[in-house]
Amino acid sequence: MLPTSPDSKSSPTFSGYQKLVVALLAFLQFTIILDFMILSPMGPILMPQLGISARQFGLVVSAYAFSAGIAGLLAAGFADKLDRKRLLLMFYAGFLGAPFFAVSRRAIHSCWEPAWSPDSSAA
Fold it and tell me: CB-side exposure of 16: number of CA atoms within 13 Å?
């Protein structure tokens, strides 16, 4: 039972820490949902750049959602065995780190692409 204030016996009061935790969890959930929702409106931009059809883009969006669902089911098996706070931080770090590594890999690859390319004049 939550503590109640002395002047009002029916409404619970929340500590600053509890409010912070709820705000952080809401922010985490918002960023994860935003990640899913940002892909669909970007279809008209991404389809011509990637040279894919609307059907193929729909498969990409679906695969993204299904992979997140499968990852959630797989993580549920060991989530109770580990500390939940540490697990949340680990998965969120991966969630934030994956785009960074994807972009940095592409940037590093583009720096070395002329040397690796079979079409380069260095050969």
Answer: 0
Q: 52-73: per-residue pLDDT in tens?
A: 999 999 888 888 788 878 887 8
Contact criterion met (CB below 8 Å) for 47 and 38 = no
CA distance 118 to 3: 70
d(C-alpha 65, C-alpha 67), whole Å: 5
Per-residue pLDDT, 111: 65
Among 59-63, 71-75, 92-96, 102-106, the range scoring the smallest mean pLDDT is: 102-106
Calculate ∠ Cα 68-74-75, nearest 5°.
Answer: 85
Tell me the three state secondary structure of residue 83: coil
Structure token digits, residue 117: 């390319």
Report d(CA 57, CA 70) in Å as an integer. 20
The 3-state DSSP class for residue 4 equals strand
User: Any residues with CB less than 8 A from the CB of 88 and at least 6 apart, and which?
Assistant: 28
Spatial separation of the C-alpha atoms in residues 95 and 76, rounded to whole Å? 17
